[in-house]
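Retro notes (design track)

What went well: tokenization of the new backbones is finally stable.
What didn't: we kept losing track of which sequence belonged to which structure.
Fix going forward: every design gets posted as structure first, then sequence, in one message. First example under the new rule, 142 residues:
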């Protein structure tokens, strides 16, 4: 980032302060804080928490998505980062992309997700069956 607003450590510490602030800050400030949390696996839980709890109207998901997507091909990718990306895809209305990550993470409610967002036509039946078998296998192990 050319002009870092804050370090990742301070971004995770003051996330709730940022969102409760009046008057509201610009979208860019919230986006920078979220992007700062992408930089280290140690902050991915904070990122997921922020994505799930911050009001969707105070930032745009696209800049954060753009910061996360390159991370998917690195050794620093975590399941928590994937889940945060899936949640951001939901915010942005990219339901098929969100489904792909939720299925990859073997989320047990992935079939409810397909129903809720009417993804039957968009999802290959074979892919769903493979995920169903994986989910059943995981459930048998527990």
């Amino acid at each position: 980032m050319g002009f870092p607003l804050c370090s990742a450590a301070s971004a995770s510490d003051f996330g709730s302060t940022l969102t409760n602030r009046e008057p509201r800050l610009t979208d860019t400030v919230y986006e920078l804080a979220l992007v700062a949390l992408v930089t280290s696996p140690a902050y991915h839980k904070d990122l997921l928490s922020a994505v799930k709890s911050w009001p969707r109207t105070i930032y745009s998901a696209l800049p954060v998505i753009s910061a996360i997507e390159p991370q998917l091909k690195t050794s620093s990718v975590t399941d928590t980062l994937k889940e945060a990306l899936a949640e951001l895809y939901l915010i942005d209305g990219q339901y098929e992309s969100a489904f792909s990550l939720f299925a990859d993470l073997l989320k047990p409610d992935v079939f409810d997700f397909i129903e809720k967002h009417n993804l039957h036509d968009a999802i290959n039946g074979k892919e769903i069956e493979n995920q169903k078998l994986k989910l059943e296998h995981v459930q048998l192990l527990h």
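Added context from the reviewer: The radius of gyration is 17 Å.
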